[in-house]
Structures are given as C-alpha cells and as structure tokens.
Amino acid sequence: MTPLVVKLKHQDRATFRANLASLDYIGIITFTGGLTTFLVGLSWGGLEFAWNSYQTLVPLLLGLVVLGFSLVWEARLAKKPFIKLYIYTNYSAISGLLAAFLQGYLVSDVSQMWTHRLTSCL
Fold first, then answer.
1. HSE of 99 in the Cβ direction (CA atoms, 13 Å)?
2. Contacts of 110 (CB under 8 A, 6+ apart)
3. SS in 3 state form for the chain?
4. 37 contacts 63 by C-beta, under 8 angstroms
5. CA distance 42 to 22
6. Are 41 and 64 spatial neighbours (Cβ–Cβ below 8 Å)?
7. How many CA atoms are closer than 13 Å to the CA of 95, on its beta-carbon side?
8. For 67-102, how does the pLDDT look when each residue is reduced to its tens digit (9 = 90+)?
C-alpha cells in the first residue's frame, strides 16, 4: 500500500562504482567495530568473566571509545556520513524511535512472561 501512496523524488542515478566510492568507509568500520567490541564485552560480563575483570572491561571501554570516535567522525569529519545525526534533533523522529524501542521491549517482555507462565503450568 505504501508505494501507491508515497511519492518519492527520484534523484540522478549514479553508477555502482560511484556509489561505492561515496560510502563513508571509516565511519562504517569504526561504528561496526566499536559496537561489536562493546557488545562482546557486554555478553562476556558475568558469564564468561567477572564484571570487574580486564577481559570484560577492556572490550567495554574500547568499544565505547571507538563508538565515541565514530560519532565525532560522523558529526564533524565525514563528507557524506552514513548516520544522519540531525534525525536525533527532530521531536517526531525521537518520539518514533522511542515508541519503536518501547514496543520492542514490551513484545520481548511479554513473550518471556508467557513462556515462563506456560512452562510453570506444565
């Protein structure tokens, strides 16, 4: 239904090679690497290693530092950033993101609650 209602403005089509050349590789690599490193530390904490061990703290802190660099890169240094930071200054976008987060949280919480209730009944 959406394609019938929403009319998008077509921009000039660039070649595949031009599109590849315009990607923000530094931003993509630092954001992906920082987020992955942070999530590895988060998943190791309390399970594989203690929360106060260096095996948990180093990935957590290193991931945060690289994510911070990635955000600075996107905000100030990238010619064509892949993360549009101005989205987070629009109240409509913020409310939509918050609603999506809450809906995902509630769906996850309800599914875990029902799974727990069903297993306790059996």
1. 6
2. none
3. CHHHHCCCCCCCCCCHHHHHHCCCHHHHHHHHHHHHHHHHHHHHECCCECCCCHHHHHHHHHHHHHHHHHHHHHHHHCCCCCCCHHHHHCHHHHHHHHHHHHHHHHHHHHHHHHHHHHHHHC
4. yes
5. 33
6. no
7. 3
8. 999 999 999 999 999 888 888 888 998 999 999 999
